[in-house]
Specification:
The chain has helices spanning 4-8, 27-66, 76-86, 90-119, 121-131, 134-145, 149-178, 188-213, 223-249, 255-264, 266-272, 277-309, 313-325, 327-338, 342-371, 380-398, 405-423, 428-441, and strands at residues 184-185, 402-403. By secondary structure, it is mainly alpha-helical. The protein has a two-stranded antiparallel ribbon with strand order 1-2.
């Protein structure tokens, strides 16, 4: 047998200085060299890409699930599921599920911010509208499936109150203390637009409540539901118009936020890009699925937790649930206020309230309509009055376009009054249903 060199030529293996793949004049040698060279290159590229993918995956897992300190609460989610099947103690299941959902809500906000770096302002605004309040939407849909309409109404109302009073109040308070030597200012134009939308949301919830409590319905028991569904469609159109107004036709109204980011924070923003576009999308899907799983156990444990903890369902829905759903907004609003970026703080706190009132609540009404559930905008008299007064207080606080720690303290104290009111409040609708149930039995 001849050697390999006798069969395919002496130049099959090129020298280091030879960069030409077709070195030999023999056709067979050329073909052999092409196949050998491409095979070796593909093996090297495959190994490098594999190592790169493993490195990227491990870094992505570290950034999303380990790096943030709030991720220490992640194990409470699986623990709540174990307690559900092992003990059935609804109080502990509810408490641990709340702790488990808190970091997931914050991580959803983080993944949305990472994806917004690649999408631009228009798609980024839609992403914030969708995923910024994803926790509230998922919990509401699960509650709708379980016919817990009052829990849906009260949890969404609580999210609005929490954002407008607690989140904004803490942001103003910490920002005022961090910059106590100067007056912090923000753009009044954006605040006025959001305040107008919030007042429109109050109108949408006020008229069905007034129609119900004055007993002036044209069709008894049906007019409130029909009015709620019509108003919800109108509010969704108004919110879509608001997105177009904000992101396309009137971008100069929100220029202070953009100018701050362009002048001094370019390097910081680039450093904050820690996920690729597809990594952010995958993590959004994973986190949303896990929130959906925990939300089912959370909704199932609400009534049992109310009985075991001796708390009303109204207090749990209006005060406890929204604190979990607003974890991301709370942290980011305080951070931007301490960096003297109040325009972004207003966009986070008041913008989230606008999203819930003008998008999430009407969306739940439409979803309930499709599911055959009688979800309406009649939030009862006590809740509607609370929302109306809260919007007025916040609108007066923001009308000057300035903030300080005293305004923040006032908003926090107002939230404490609201929390105390719901702690002693009993839902009249549930009480009347319970009374009718006892009468039917007797």
């Amino acid at each position: 047998m001849g050697s390999v060199e006798e069969k395919i030529g002496p130049h099959h293996f090129p020298d280091e200085d030879d960069h030409t793949p077709f070195h030999s004049s023999s056709p067979s040698a050329s073909i052999s060299k092409v196949h050998t060279f491409n095979f070796e290159t593909s093996v090297v590229d495959f190994r490098r890409s594999s190592i790169f993918n493993v490195t990227r995956m491990s870094r992505s897992v570290y950034v999303v699930l380990i790096k943030a300190k709030i991720n220490m609460l992640l194990p409470f989610g699986p623990l709540a599921i174990l307690l559900h099947y092992l003990t059935g103690h609804h109080g502990w299941v509810f408490f641990f599920t709340l702790l488990g959902i808190t970091p997931l809500a914050e991580r959803l906000g983080y993944a949305t911010e990472q994806l917004a770096f690649y999408t631009g302002p228009t798609v980024g605004g839609l992403l914030n509208a969708t995923f910024g309040n994803a926790t509230e939407m998922i919990i509401s849909i699960y509650a709708l499936k379980s016919d817990m309409i009052r829990v849906v109404q009260q949890s969404l109302l609580g999210s609005i109150l929490s954002n407008m009073l607690l989140v904004l109040g803490c942001a103003f308070f910490t920002g005022g203390l961090a910059h106590y030597k100067k007056v912090q200012v923000f753009d009044k134009a954006a605040a006025v637009v959001n305040s107008g939308l919030l007042l429109m949301a109050v109108m949408g919830t006020l008229f069905p409540a007034v129609l119900y409590f004055t007993h002036s319905e044209l069709h008894q028991g049906k007019s409130v539901l029909s009015l709620s569904r019509f108003s919800s469609c109108v509010m969704l159109v108004a919110y879509a118009s608001y997105l177009f107004f904000q992101l396309r036709s009137q971008q100069n109204v929100y220029s202070p936020v953009d100018e701050e980011g362009d002048n001094g924070q370019n390097s910081d923003e680039e450093e904050e890009i820690e996920l690729t576009q597809w990594e952010a999308i995958i993590w959004l899907a994973i986190l949303t699925a896990w929130v959906s799983v925990l939300s089912g156990y959370l909704v199932d444990a609400i009534q049992g937790a109310s009985d075991s903890l001796n708390m009303s369902v109204a207090f749990i829905s209006v005060i406890l649930l929204p604190i979990v759903g607003n974890a991301a907004e709370h942290a980011s609003a305080i951070m931007f206020a301490m960096k003297d970026k109040l325009d972004i703080t207003i966009g986070v706190a008041i913008g989230s309230s606008t999203q819930i009132s003008m998008f999430v609540i009407p969306f739940c009404v439409v979803v309930g309509w499709c599911m055959g559930k009688e979800m309406d905008l009649n939030f009862q008299l006590f809740e509607t009055a609370t929302l109306f007064i809260t919007v007025l207080v916040v609108a007066f606080m923001m009308q000057e376009g300035t903030s300080n720690y005293f305004k923040g303290l006032m908003l926090i104290l107002c939230y404490l009054i609201v929390a105390a009111s719901f702690f002693v409040h009993v839902d009249p609708k549930s009480e009347s249903n319970l009374h009718c149930y006892h009468l039917s039995i007797s």
